[in-house]
Write a structure and sequence with these properties.
With 332 residues, this protein is of the alpha+beta class. It has eleven helices and 14 strands.
Length: 332
């Protein structure tokens, strides 16, 4: 038997691929018997003694699912840096195909689908090298319909759009084509992003503010100085009351520069005439206590200005217009 050098072979071999590399069935049986290789599933072996990784399962799926196969789901989002809080143990290793039947092999799910999907190839240095993968939009949709909580879906949807990996329209198109079963959280997250929510905290705040029957507000409003230069963007603005709610991005400022940045921002906005309220994400809960405190703050602001808060409630429709603060001075 010729010497087998594992580093010269792909990590995953099928019968057809083994023949291409000159590996006979007898050699495969011997390597498995000696414990040098491991069987992944029927038709695929790992040319290493260690347990297969998710990427090994994905490679096996692509080899077993035919020429149209492409990896989707967690593996695609992980390479894009979009799965910080996604519970990987709850998600299958997903490979899509157009011609083979759907089947489950351990953590691997080969799914036959008639929904169209575009593919690209991963670079040679990737964790899953030279492998067809779907677009980030399709992978986001495939993960979103499997996640168990609204917040986890909000996270990947908002992050994918914020970081420029896909457009809102791409995800809306995926939602339109995907099965209705399991898509409720995905639909809700897209609705929130479409009206301006950029994070889990902002999406939860939007829900609370709408339920709290608070005066008409706007999300993510650009703040311009007297020269009409964009200086800040405030999270929530009550334009008639010159009041802004800021949802701090962290519970605590571990770095002095972050703390100083928040102080400078607050000072600049208040000096320019805005009343600014800061809330950490932990205060944005599902009960009504935090919105009641916001309502009291807005009532005090209206009394201070001698104005009525307005008869309309909820989110102002449409893209928010910038707010110009002629007195705004910022060193940031």
């Amino acid at each position: 038997m010729p010497l087998i050098r594992a580093h010269e072979l792909p990590r995953v071999l099928t019968v057809a691929l083994a023949e291409q590399h000159g590996v006979t069935a007898a050699t495969t049986r011997t390597q498995l018997a000696h414990g040098s290789w491991r069987r992944i599933c029927a038709g695929a072996v790992l040319t290493r003694p260690d347990p297969p990784t998710r990427y090994d399962w994905a490679a096996a799926g692509v080899l077993l699912a035919g020429p149209s196969a492409a990896v989707s789901g967690w593996e695609v989002l992980r390479d894009a840096g979009l799965v910080r809080g996604v519970p990987v143990q709850q998600l299958p290793v997903l490979v899509l195909t157009r011609e083979h039947r759907s089947r489950r092999l351990g953590p691997l799910l080969i799914r036959r689908t008639n929904r169209p999907y575009g593919t690209t190839w991963t670079p040679e240095e990737a964790d899953l090298p030279l492998t067809p993968v779907v677009t980030t939009a399709r992978a986001t949709a495939d993960v979103a319909v499997c996640l168990p909580t609204l917040n986890s879906v909000r996270d990947i949807v908002a992050t994918a759009i914020q970081r420029g990996h896909c457009e809102l329209g791409d995800l809306v198109g995926e939602l339109t084509d995907c099965p209705q079963r399991g898509s409720a959280f995905f639909r809700r997250a897209l609705e929130e992003v479409s009206v301006g929510a950029r994070s889990i905290a902002e999406a939860r705040a939007l829900t609370g503010l709408q339920r709290g029957a608070l005066p008409l507000f706007e999300l993510n409003v650009p703040i311009l100085d007297g020269c009409r230069r964009h200086v800040f963007t405030v999270d929530v603005l009550w334009r008639a009351l010159w009041a802004a709610l800021e949802i701090d991005s962290a519970e605590y400022h571990f770095r002095r520069v972050d703390w100083l940045h928040t102080l400078d921002r607050h000072a600049a906005l208040t000096a320019a005439g805005l009343s600014v309220l800061h809330l950490p994400p932990s205060r944005i809960t599902t009960d009504s206590r935090w919105t009641a405190s916001v309502a009291r703050w807005l009532d005090s602001r209206a009394a201070e200005l001698g104005v009525e808060p307005g008869s309309r409630c909820g989110l102002m429709p449409g893209e928010p217009a910038p707010l110009v603060l002629p007195r705004l001075v910022s060193r940031l």
